[in-house]
Design brief:
heterodimer, A: alpha/beta, Rossmann fold, 7-stranded mixed beta sheet, 5-stranded mixed beta sheet, 22 helices, 38% helix, globular, B: 187 residues, alpha/beta, 7 helices, 41% helix
Chain lengths: 616, 187
Amino acid sequence: MHKLLNDSPGEEIMLLGNESIARGAIEAGVAFATTYPGTPSSEISLNLFQMSQETDLYFEYSTNEKVALEVAAASAIAGVRTMCMMKHVGLNVAADPLMTLAYVGIKGGLVILTADDPYMFSSQNEQDNRYYGKLSGLPVLEPSSVQEAKEMTKYAFELSEKVGEPVILRTTTRINHSSAFVSLGDMKKRETKGEFKRDPFKYVTVPAVARNLHVKLLENLDKTLAISEDCEENFIEGDGKFGVICNGVSYLYVSDAIKDLDLKGKIKILRIGLSNPLPGKMIKQFVGSCDKVLIVEEGEPFMEEAVKAFAQEEGIIIPIAGKSEQLFSRLYEYNPGLVREKMASFFGFDYTPATNIDSSKFPEIPQRPPNLCSGCSHRATFYELQAAAREMDIIVPTDIGCYTLGFLPPLNTGDLVICMGASISSACGFSEVTDKKVVPIIGDSTFFHSGITGLVNAVFNNHNLTLIILENGITAMTGHQPHPGVDMDELNFKGYNRISVEKVVRSLGIEHVTLIKPFKVKKSIEQIKEALAFKGVSVIISQEPCAIMLKNLKTRKLRPFKITDKCNNTRDCINSIACPSFFIEDDKVNIDPTTCVGCAVCAQICPENAIVPLKN
Amino acid sequence: MKTVNYVLSGLGGQGILFMTKIFATTALNKGYNILGAETHGMAQRGGSVVSHLRIGDTKSSLIRAGAADFLISMDESEAYRYLPYLKKGGKLFANAPGDAFPDKQIAGYLDRMEIEPRAMEASRTAMELGSPKSTNLAMIAFYSAFGMGPLSADDLRATVDTNSPGPFKEKNLKIFDTCYEVGRKMV
């Protein structure tokens, strides 16, 4: 049995934040769940997917976040408790359905989880998705701890049904990827079937209907405001003439600072857990009872600007601060030390950091950018592209996935990244305004997510580009989730269909389609050269399963290579492909037999033929 | 109990999540409250990884710079990277050749901070014992030999025992016992 299906209420088990959220959904009786994977949200989906294999919970990996939310919307409109999960930038993709779904409303609780990523541990930006609550008029809930993440997920379903609207549950990486003891609760029975009653004047959002629906949305927002003023999620703690207003993990840092600096009785806290709409009355009373107020929130001054406006309405003139050069930044993640220091300086308490760290004399520490894995086929394809285009000046718009990592030397493959799917569409633009050959690169999962539309555009408008689709048979970067091109039978999952990347591409009428096997170096270079010479849209599909997936599936025997005495130390291997299995010992290149998967790409590059299989 | 803070560091792929799990499960079995903060996702692709583990009553899972009691690192440079987390008098355990560790450049800092460094070639030992991927277990065992902190060597060993799947149990315990002995000789 899956550990999150443990039916012993009251038991405490150690859970990752994302597991806690998945358990919260299960306790709330979630019966339908959709997602497109994205760090830091991925483990929520993974756990729900696993549980769907042994229960009547319906779970799907949808093509992209917009699709996921639309599938989820119908389920919730039909009255089924539904959850839809994504990373913060995923909500941009799903923003279109989000905005109008708010007008339509739901019947069964719908929780939309957005996992924000301050500091961009695994993301291309650190946008603050609380603003989506404001933009759409939907309630936003923000947990502070792993345990609360479970409770709040449960509450989000109730709140959603109470106000008839989807609820945005906003986490940050530090919640998703922290672990703690969580006390289990009762599991509500899943109601898996819903009912849809025709009611076009409620559901068909033509202008005449939408005008009425907007009125209803504002009424629902008022209902949520009343709840926000009087709910357990927004609370005041402690007392003192100084006040701190905080949310999310910042609440924990503030609490620890008050304890550690012995400020009990001097500083009180207003913790905001339901942050849209903000409890105006509560905030006014709180601010009115303070001499000075500090707002501690990662990201944008979402609460700060509102608090200042509330204070203005009340004519309260006290120092209220948050983001400034001396205090908090809009950049990156906060930490306990920073919060402690800023609180002490703003309120005028003594605080000397425990240590004065001068790390200038430390040995030089290597930068360690994430790297393509040993035996990753992307490395081979990038090497071959660069070799094929040696005489050319190419632009390579790349996309979101493991292969983004190819931009660093020595592969130097990747010139622009904007968002999922943008490789192909931006290539269309480059091809028109520059005279260079444009070679967009996209993975198979991202191709299905939002690359197809760009390719259709390229064909229709007859742009001159050579698209490389890296078909490795999985969504690798986020932890090996399925996508529509995955062979689910091979992974032992029944009841799925597989969509062929090649057939999709050919169906668009593209004349020049090439399949390459990237571990055949010479042949691939010739094939890529040919495709690059084609004028118009040409597509190269580079087919080789993800090395890590094969390792996990144990379907391929590893055949590590070694470097023999023939090696003259020209180091073409390291200098051109830099596989992490290489290491230098006594000024000689070696191959780590425990990580080498035997792709043999280096063996084909070595001018001395010095790289051979370890065992023959 | 006063909160005890562990910072674990290493490289993506060295098994820092399993290492964290062993410490956390041991603490849990002892009835301690624990909080952890981990690295997932992109950085796991060979990048620098760190895990914070706090045992005791506290709210935030992150450890402040200058507040860690123990820094256990599976890689020498990753030990230096996270050194500022160690408090005055904190203990440093690194996977590094004992004769060349610590780097001369940090000797002064360690002295000033009264940090006692200890090192063993954990990767090499794991490799020699036929389990090249067990640097994590080697470092847990090495640390446990010094009898510091709330988790004893016996407790940690028992957790390794229960968390090792059948075919690996014997090898894992052998690594544990060998590295424990390496540590005992330095006590």
